[in-house]
Amino acid sequence: MPVGFTRRPITPRGNSILTKVVELIDPGTGWWDEQLVNDLFWPEDAATILATQVDENLEDWPTWHFDSKGLFSVKSAYKLAVQIREKEKCRDASGSSLNTSHADTLQWEKIWNMEVPNKIKMFVWRLAHNSLPVRCNIRRRGMESDNLCPMCNRFDEDCGHLFLKCKGVKECWRSLNLEEVRLRLVQCQSGKETVKEILSMTAKDQLKAVVLLWKW
User: Fold this and answer.
1) What is the CA radius of gyration of the chain?
2) How much is the pLDDT for 213?
3) pTM surpassing 0.90?
4) Strand blocks (E) in the chain
Protein backbone atom coordinates (compact mmCIF):
# COMPACT_ATOMS: atom_id res chain seq x y z
CA MET A 1 0.00 0.00 0.00
CA PRO A 2 1.46 3.42 -0.93
CA VAL A 3 0.16 5.05 2.28
CA GLY A 4 0.77 4.82 6.02
CA PHE A 5 3.87 3.99 8.04
CA THR A 6 3.64 0.20 7.66
CA ARG A 7 2.37 0.21 4.04
CA ARG A 8 -0.11 -2.49 5.02
CA PRO A 9 -3.90 -2.55 4.54
CA ILE A 10 -5.93 -1.61 7.60
CA THR A 11 -8.49 -4.30 6.71
CA PRO A 12 -8.18 -7.41 8.94
CA ARG A 13 -7.08 -10.44 6.93
CA GLY A 14 -9.99 -12.58 8.10
CA ASN A 15 -10.46 -15.90 6.33
CA SER A 16 -9.35 -14.82 2.87
CA ILE A 17 -7.37 -17.52 1.03
CA LEU A 18 -5.72 -15.03 -1.32
CA THR A 19 -1.99 -14.61 -0.73
CA LYS A 20 -0.70 -12.66 -3.74
CA VAL A 21 -1.49 -9.29 -5.30
CA VAL A 22 -1.78 -10.90 -8.74
CA GLU A 23 -4.86 -12.75 -7.50
CA LEU A 24 -6.64 -9.37 -7.25
CA ILE A 25 -6.06 -8.64 -10.95
CA ASP A 26 -8.50 -9.67 -13.67
CA PRO A 27 -6.44 -11.76 -16.16
CA GLY A 28 -8.75 -10.71 -18.98
CA THR A 29 -8.35 -6.96 -18.58
CA GLY A 30 -4.98 -6.80 -16.81
CA TRP A 31 -6.58 -4.42 -14.30
CA TRP A 32 -7.85 -4.74 -10.75
CA ASP A 33 -10.88 -6.97 -10.24
CA GLU A 34 -12.94 -4.16 -8.72
CA GLN A 35 -15.71 -6.39 -7.41
CA LEU A 36 -13.24 -8.69 -5.66
CA VAL A 37 -11.25 -5.78 -4.20
CA ASN A 38 -14.41 -4.12 -2.87
CA ASP A 39 -15.59 -7.43 -1.40
CA LEU A 40 -12.31 -8.14 0.42
CA PHE A 41 -11.22 -4.71 1.67
CA TRP A 42 -12.65 -1.85 3.65
CA PRO A 43 -13.56 1.21 1.52
CA GLU A 44 -10.38 3.12 2.48
CA ASP A 45 -8.12 0.26 1.39
CA ALA A 46 -10.19 -0.55 -1.70
CA ALA A 47 -10.00 3.07 -2.91
CA THR A 48 -6.20 3.13 -2.48
CA ILE A 49 -5.73 -0.21 -4.25
CA LEU A 50 -7.95 0.70 -7.21
CA ALA A 51 -6.13 4.03 -7.60
CA THR A 52 -2.78 2.22 -7.93
CA GLN A 53 -1.57 1.84 -11.52
CA VAL A 54 -1.01 -1.68 -12.85
CA ASP A 55 1.51 -2.45 -15.60
CA GLU A 56 1.68 -6.13 -16.51
CA ASN A 57 4.87 -5.51 -18.51
CA LEU A 58 6.88 -4.56 -15.43
CA GLU A 59 8.34 -7.06 -12.98
CA ASP A 60 7.90 -6.64 -9.23
CA TRP A 61 10.93 -5.66 -7.19
CA PRO A 62 11.49 -5.08 -3.46
CA THR A 63 11.70 -1.46 -2.30
CA TRP A 64 12.50 0.31 1.00
CA HIS A 65 9.69 2.79 1.43
CA PHE A 66 11.64 4.95 3.89
CA ASP A 67 13.90 6.07 1.04
CA SER A 68 12.70 8.33 -1.80
CA LYS A 69 14.35 6.03 -4.37
CA GLY A 70 13.19 2.84 -2.66
CA LEU A 71 16.74 1.72 -1.93
CA PHE A 72 17.75 0.27 1.44
CA SER A 73 21.00 1.37 3.04
CA VAL A 74 22.46 1.42 6.53
CA LYS A 75 22.31 5.22 6.33
CA SER A 76 18.57 5.24 5.62
CA ALA A 77 17.94 2.70 8.42
CA TYR A 78 19.95 4.82 10.86
CA LYS A 79 18.03 7.92 9.76
CA LEU A 80 14.76 6.11 10.46
CA ALA A 81 15.99 5.04 13.92
CA VAL A 82 16.91 8.67 14.71
CA GLN A 83 13.48 9.86 13.57
CA ILE A 84 11.78 7.29 15.78
CA ARG A 85 14.01 8.33 18.67
CA GLU A 86 13.11 12.01 18.20
CA LYS A 87 9.40 11.18 18.09
CA GLU A 88 9.73 9.31 21.38
CA LYS A 89 11.52 12.28 22.93
CA CYS A 90 8.72 14.58 21.81
CA ARG A 91 6.11 12.22 23.19
CA ASP A 92 7.89 12.00 26.52
CA ALA A 93 8.20 15.79 26.63
CA SER A 94 4.51 16.11 25.88
CA GLY A 95 3.72 13.67 28.67
CA SER A 96 5.80 15.74 31.10
CA SER A 97 3.86 18.89 30.16
CA LEU A 98 0.69 17.06 31.13
CA ASN A 99 2.11 16.38 34.61
CA THR A 100 2.98 12.78 33.83
CA SER A 101 4.95 11.29 36.69
CA HIS A 102 8.65 11.09 35.90
CA ALA A 103 8.71 7.68 37.55
CA ASP A 104 6.19 6.36 34.99
CA THR A 105 8.15 7.58 31.96
CA LEU A 106 10.82 5.46 30.36
CA GLN A 107 13.87 7.58 29.56
CA TRP A 108 14.43 6.46 25.98
CA GLU A 109 17.84 8.09 25.74
CA LYS A 110 19.13 5.48 28.19
CA ILE A 111 18.48 2.82 25.55
CA TRP A 112 20.40 4.71 22.88
CA ASN A 113 23.26 5.36 25.32
CA MET A 114 23.75 1.68 26.17
CA GLU A 115 27.21 0.37 25.31
CA VAL A 116 25.96 -2.36 22.97
CA PRO A 117 25.66 -2.62 19.16
CA ASN A 118 22.87 -0.61 17.55
CA LYS A 119 20.99 -3.78 16.56
CA ILE A 120 20.68 -4.68 20.25
CA LYS A 121 19.49 -1.16 21.10
CA MET A 122 16.79 -1.50 18.44
CA PHE A 123 15.85 -4.91 19.87
CA VAL A 124 15.45 -3.39 23.36
CA TRP A 125 13.37 -0.53 21.90
CA ARG A 126 11.07 -3.04 20.19
CA LEU A 127 10.80 -5.06 23.41
CA ALA A 128 9.63 -1.92 25.21
CA HIS A 129 6.98 -1.38 22.52
CA ASN A 130 5.92 -5.05 22.40
CA SER A 131 6.65 -5.13 18.67
CA LEU A 132 8.94 -8.18 18.50
CA PRO A 133 7.72 -10.96 16.17
CA VAL A 134 6.71 -13.44 18.86
CA ARG A 135 3.76 -15.65 17.96
CA CYS A 136 1.14 -13.78 19.99
CA ASN A 137 2.12 -10.49 18.31
CA ILE A 138 2.04 -12.08 14.86
CA ARG A 139 -1.46 -13.39 15.55
CA ARG A 140 -2.55 -10.04 16.97
CA ARG A 141 -1.57 -8.36 13.69
CA GLY A 142 -4.05 -10.53 11.81
CA MET A 143 -1.65 -13.15 10.44
CA GLU A 144 -2.35 -16.86 10.58
CA SER A 145 -0.21 -18.26 13.38
CA ASP A 146 -0.31 -20.85 16.14
CA ASN A 147 0.24 -19.04 19.45
CA LEU A 148 1.74 -22.08 21.17
CA CYS A 149 5.42 -21.85 22.14
CA PRO A 150 7.38 -24.22 19.81
CA MET A 151 9.94 -24.95 22.54
CA CYS A 152 7.71 -26.21 25.34
CA ASN A 153 4.39 -26.69 23.48
CA ARG A 154 2.55 -25.76 26.67
CA PHE A 155 1.97 -22.00 26.78
CA ASP A 156 1.36 -19.11 24.37
CA GLU A 157 4.54 -17.48 23.09
CA ASP A 158 4.48 -13.85 24.22
CA CYS A 159 7.59 -11.89 25.26
CA GLY A 160 7.14 -12.71 28.93
CA HIS A 161 7.00 -16.44 28.29
CA LEU A 162 9.72 -16.54 25.61
CA PHE A 163 12.31 -14.52 27.51
CA LEU A 164 11.55 -15.23 31.16
CA LYS A 165 9.20 -18.14 31.83
CA CYS A 166 9.87 -20.91 29.31
CA LYS A 167 11.78 -23.86 30.80
CA GLY A 168 14.72 -23.52 28.41
CA VAL A 169 15.30 -19.83 28.99
CA LYS A 170 15.08 -20.24 32.77
CA GLU A 171 18.13 -22.51 32.59
CA CYS A 172 20.04 -19.82 30.67
CA TRP A 173 19.31 -17.19 33.32
CA ARG A 174 20.47 -19.58 36.03
CA SER A 175 23.67 -20.54 34.18
CA LEU A 176 24.62 -16.83 34.03
CA ASN A 177 23.86 -16.38 37.75
CA LEU A 178 21.00 -14.04 36.85
CA GLU A 179 18.10 -15.88 38.48
CA GLU A 180 17.46 -12.96 40.85
CA VAL A 181 17.39 -10.62 37.86
CA ARG A 182 14.92 -12.90 36.06
CA LEU A 183 12.64 -12.99 39.08
CA ARG A 184 12.64 -9.17 39.17
CA LEU A 185 11.71 -9.01 35.49
CA VAL A 186 8.95 -11.60 35.83
CA GLN A 187 7.12 -9.16 38.12
CA CYS A 188 6.95 -6.52 35.36
CA GLN A 189 3.56 -6.03 33.73
CA SER A 190 4.65 -4.76 30.29
CA GLY A 191 7.56 -4.56 27.90
CA LYS A 192 8.17 -0.94 28.83
CA GLU A 193 8.25 -1.81 32.52
CA THR A 194 10.65 -4.69 31.79
CA VAL A 195 13.07 -2.43 29.91
CA LYS A 196 12.79 0.21 32.62
CA GLU A 197 13.77 -2.40 35.21
CA ILE A 198 16.73 -3.54 33.09
CA LEU A 199 17.97 0.04 32.72
CA SER A 200 17.95 0.44 36.51
CA MET A 201 20.41 -2.44 37.00
CA THR A 202 24.15 -2.30 37.39
CA ALA A 203 26.03 -1.98 34.11
CA LYS A 204 27.27 -5.57 34.38
CA ASP A 205 23.82 -7.12 34.98
CA GLN A 206 22.26 -4.81 32.39
CA LEU A 207 24.73 -5.96 29.73
CA LYS A 208 24.26 -9.64 30.57
CA ALA A 209 20.47 -9.31 30.55
CA VAL A 210 20.09 -7.51 27.22
CA VAL A 211 22.60 -9.77 25.45
CA LEU A 212 20.85 -12.89 26.77
CA LEU A 213 17.45 -11.56 25.63
CA TRP A 214 18.78 -10.63 22.21
CA LYS A 215 20.65 -13.90 21.64
CA TRP A 216 17.69 -15.99 22.83
Assistant:
1) 22
2) 92
3) no
4) 25-26, 31-32
